[in-house]
Design brief:
The chain has about 350 residues and is mainly alpha-helical. It has one domain. Helices cover about 75% and strands about 0% of the residues. It contains eleven helices and no strands.
Length: about 350
């Protein structure tokens, strides 16, 4: 009697999208997606501090000769932190500006280290989610490749976010010039247009990430649908992160710990979502190829050589039977009388 199918198996047979989703989840877990996401999160957060150091160094060079703007910057920062931390923050800003050269160099070196670690883990994770073989690459060649990939991704993200920011700023200027900046419907349409522009920019970036960052290149055509899902999910995560920060920053404790927790959670969610979408793309029907049949095992010829000093049991029985038959024939012949 055939075994009855489970409810989930029947649903997977009826709904291809559900079957695809579950196959993607199985691939994501089997290919250590959560562990790779944790490594990406670690290097993402680690990269923030060198970037902040570089930012302080740049501000130091820009504001060193402009005490008015420096004072305004300090006031805006100290007003946003809880009481008791304003003096600490002010001292840190002064120290960073006074040591802007050293801070900048250290920031660049540590940013290069953490950035290369982030890119290396990201590329290895994407390669694993595609189900591709991880090949050993010489250290120097691997480092140079990761460095170029990091620069390319940074440029793509800068163009993406730059287009979104410029588009939003131009939209606000346009509404102001038309006198519609106070109309709710005009502000709403501008918001929708900004999100749409952000989605298109993110889509282009994710196509490049999914198709070109794996160590073994895959087809761009296969990454188009996955990049659409990644762009939509990333925009949703950004909106949730914005709401989270607006909520937690309303309290002193939230100002101190909220951004750190928010960055950790946001980085981990984005990493997991990106790797899951890559696994979802890799498990699409057009990307799943049947594995070639395994070759049969080699034939093994093992000759058996038996050496005996005498006849075996069967041979002995045959010889006894032949002897008895011959004896009987001889007896009959001997018993005949001549005519």
């Amino acid at each position: 009697m055939a075994e009855k199918e489970s409810w989930l198996a029947r649903q997977r047979g009826k709904r291809p999208w559900l079957d695809h989703l579950l196959r993607a989840y199985d691939a994501f877990t089997e290919r250590n997606g959560n562990h790779y996401a944790a490594a990406i999160t670690y290097f993402s957060v680690l990269s923030l501090f060198p970037l902040l150091m570089i930012g302080f160094a740049v501000l130091g060079f820009v504001l060193a000769g402009d005490p008015v703007q420096l004072r305004n910057l300090k006031d805006s920062i100290t007003d946003a932190v809880p009481n008791g931390l304003d003096e600490v923050i002010t001292d840190l800003i002064d120290a960073a500006i006074d040591s802007r050269g050293t801070v900048g160099v250290i920031g660049l070196l540590t940013a290069a280290y953490s950035g290369l670690g982030w890119m290396s883990n990201l590329r290895d994770a994407l390669t694993a989610q595609w189900g591709l073989e991880h090949k050993q690459v010489p250290f120097l060649k691997r480092t140079v490749s990761d460095l170029f990939s990091l620069a390319g991704l940074g440029l793509a993200m800068a163009v993406s976010f730059g287009l979104t920011a410029v588009g939003g700023a131009l939209g606000e200027d346009l509404l102001g010039a038309m006198g519609l900046d106070d109309d709710a419907w005009a502000v709403f349409l501008l918001r929708v247009a900004t999100i749409a522009l952000s989605l298109v920019a993110n889509w282009v970036v994710f196509i490049w990430v999914i198709a070109r960052l794996p160590r073994e290149k895959v087809g761009v055509r296969s990454a188009v649908r996955g990049a659409i899902a990644a762009a939509i999910g990333f925009e949703i995560l950004k909106q949730i992160g914005t709401l989270f920060l607006e909520t937690v920053l309303s309290s002193p404790a939230g100002v101190l710990f909220g951004p750190i927790i928010g960055i950790l959670v946001f980085a981990n969610l984005v990493a997991r979502y990106l790797l899951f979408i890559t696994a979802w793309t890799a498990t699409a029907r057009e990307n799943v190829h049947p594995a070639p049949p395994e070759p049969p095992p080699p034939a093994v010829i093992s000759p058996v050589l038996e050496v005996r000093s005498g006849p075996g049991p069967r041979q002995a029985a045959g010889l006894l039977g032949a002897g008895a038959l011959m004896g009987l024939l001889w007896r009959r012949r001997s018993g005949r009388r001549p005519d």
